[in-house]
Design goal:
The chain is α/β, with parallel strands linked by helices. The protein has one domain: SPOUT methyltransferase, trefoil knot domain (Alpha/beta knot, 3-Layer(aba) Sandwich). The protein is built from 6 helices and 5 strands, in the order αβαβαβαβαβα. The N and C termini lie close together (10 Å).
Length: 177
């Protein structure tokens, strides 16, 4: 049996109700076209729907950007990202300057966010990061690691960590410490 920290409170019936009423989305810039990454993302997305309504929304990469500056690209991507967020959503950016969590800590954060009653949107930005408007709209930032990963790979890694968080919350035998 895995060890759950004593501060991690779990009431099965209450969490089933909370997770059934909130939705979690992963919003990304660009398609997932690397085959093994897409398969990993599909694997964990299909597992997640057993715990919470989960979806992935991929906004198209911008076309004809050679004449644009990095800031112009971020601004255009930011405008599209913001159009895909509701005012009531809790928005968390996956950002290299965000807070890092151990898996059990991330599970606790998910549990706390679920109690807030809002849908949660996690965003993976484009190659140059986020526009200031997206940073201004976000409710928090998290980092998966101090290392840099390809943006497509982050999709599968994040989906696995979200799945792991739900198995920790439900005390299922997936996570080992």
């Amino acid at each position: 049996m895995q060890q759950i920290p004593s501060h991690f409170h779990f009431e099965k019936s209450r969490h089933v109700l909370i997770f059934a009423t909130m939705k979690i989305s992963l919003l990304t810039v660009g398609k997932t076209d690397v085959d093994w990454v897409r398969k990993g993302l599909e694997t964990y997305s299909s597992r997640l729907v057993h715990y919470v309504p989960f979806s992935v929304c991929e906004i198209p990469e911008l076309k004809n950007t050679s004449a644009l500056t990095k800031d112009q690209i971020k601004d255009k991507e930011g405008t599209i990202l913001l159009k895909n967020i509701k005012p009531s959503d809790k928005v968390i950016l996956l950002d290299e300057h965000g807070k890092e969590f151990r898996s059990v800590e991330f599970a606790e954060e998910i549990r706390k966010m679920a109690c807030g009653g809002k849908d949660i949107v996690f965003i993976i930005g484009g190659a140059y990061g986020f526009s200031q408007a997206v940073y201004d709209r976000c409710d928090g930032k998290m980092s998966l690691s101090r290392m840099t990963f390809p943006h497509q790979m982050v999709r599968a890694i994040f989906a696995e960590q979200l799945y792991r968080a739900f198995t920790i919350i439900k005390r299922e035998p997936y996570h080992h410490e």
